[in-house]
Structures are given as structure tokens and as C-alpha cells.
Amino acid sequence: MSKVEIYYFSGTGNSLAVARDIARRLNGKLIPVMSVMDQDLIGKEADVIGMVFPIYDFKPPKLLADFIGKLADIGSKYLFAVSTYGVTPLKAMKKADADVAAQGGKLSAGFNVQMPHNGIGYGDISVDKQKEMFRNWDIKLDVVADYVDARKEGCLETTNVMTGFILSGMLFKALPSIASLLWHVMRHGWASMGFIADEKCSGCGTCVRVCPMQNISMAEQRPCWSDHCVSCFACIQWCPREAIRLGNYRANLFRYRHPEVKLSDMLRENRLGSTK
What we know:
Elements: E1 4-8, H1 14-26, E2 29-32, E3 48-54, H2 62-68, E4 78-85, H3 92-102, E5 107-114, H4 127-149, E6 155-156, H5 161-166, H6 170-188, E7 195-197, H7 206-210, E8 216-219, E9 222-225, H8 234-238, E10 244-246, H9 263-271
Parallel strand pairs: 1-2, 1-3, 3-4, 4-5, 5-6
Antiparallel strand pairs: 7-10, 8-9
Helix pairs in contact: 1-4
């Protein structure tokens, strides 16, 4: 019997929820990416490796390429990937495919799953719309599991700019916020967009514990951000007082966490290594 390992990276819980579903369906081991990045070789005993990750700025997180570079005997593995995205995935799966190929492996399948986003400028998503996305994933889970079970190859899902961004209406919805963001940056510079904790911060340290990159520390009961952030927004979304924001810019950034993922799940992701 093949040994299946499902690796995931998650900020607001979308990718964790998807990875958990896949691991359950494929009888695989669920492993947080960040729990193994200190190893020289990853997945030495696995025959099948799945990678689940969010799309940031229409591409996979940079750490995915670092993770792929550590996969043991990559050319002998059946590799597949599943991305979660808020607006459109565009060619992100092609980037993942190129990263795998650069290490001598092959990405046999790549799927995209739309989930509620947490980016700037797109506003809130209704509960009904969220439930629709979750139902769509329940249906697609069967497609992904059947494809992987059969060890099929060749499916790498992508979208183009026209159908994925413009025709979806998301571009026009975001235009006012994008214009406001650009005007703010022109006046104050990109440095003004750094994370800060406002007067509502209680110094509880939740942001420190939930950050998957261990990029936050506490100084005098206030969070301080270092320089290896991947913009997952976990600190913003999991702050119990909604005290964290992007500098003095009042972004159109709504609060969202996957309803089936608890803070304890995210903390387990960052501290305990792997779950089954």
C-alpha cells in the first residue's frame, strides 16, 4: 500500500481545512510544512506527496519552492498540489510545476479551490457565498481524491486574466480600494504599510503563536514584526481584539477565518509538527 503524506501551509485555515479533507479521503498523514523545514530531506518514506497552499499575489508562497527543494528522491514520487485562492489562481500551478521540474520531479496533478479571501480591496463575503464555496469544495474533493487514487497525470488547472479576474467582476469591485492603496503609498511610501498593533492590543501574544513563519516577537507586551513575513495575514485574522492592521492605512480588509478551523488547530500547526 502506498504511503501518502499531505503537507500544508495555512494562514486563515482555508488550506488546513482542504488538506485535512484530502488526508482523510486518501488515508494520508497530515503534516504542516513549517514543522519539517528544518530537515535536510522531507518525505523520505512517502510514495505519494500532496502539497496544499494558499495563493498570494497570484503565485504560490515562496516557501513552497524551498519545501520542494528538500523533497527526498523527488523523481520517484507521485506529486500533486492543491491551491486555495480568493480571486483567481491564474498560472500559479504552472509556477509550482516549474519548481518541481527544477528539482528533477514531475507535478502529476494540480487543482485550484476557491475559498473566501482575506486580501485588500474585495470587501466582505456573505455567509451564503462562503457556504457555496464550501459546498463546491465538497464536490471537488471527490474529483481530486479519485484522480490521485488512480495515479492519473496531466491535469494542471489554470485560468487567464480575462476569465479569472475581469469577467468575475472582482477587478471592478476592487478598483476603489486599489486606487486608495496606491494613493496612500504614493504619499507615505510602502514602509507605511507595515503591520502594527493599535490601542486595542492587550499584549496576549496570540499573533506570536499563530504566525506560521515565527516572524513576530513581543517587546514590552507589544508585537514586533521581523523581515520574513509571507503576508498570510494570520496575525490580523486571529487577533482576538482585531487590533492588528497595516500601518495607518484603513484597508478594506475584512476579518475571516475558516469556520471549521479553530485557533487551537493553528497553534498545533505551528508547534506540534504533524497530526493524523
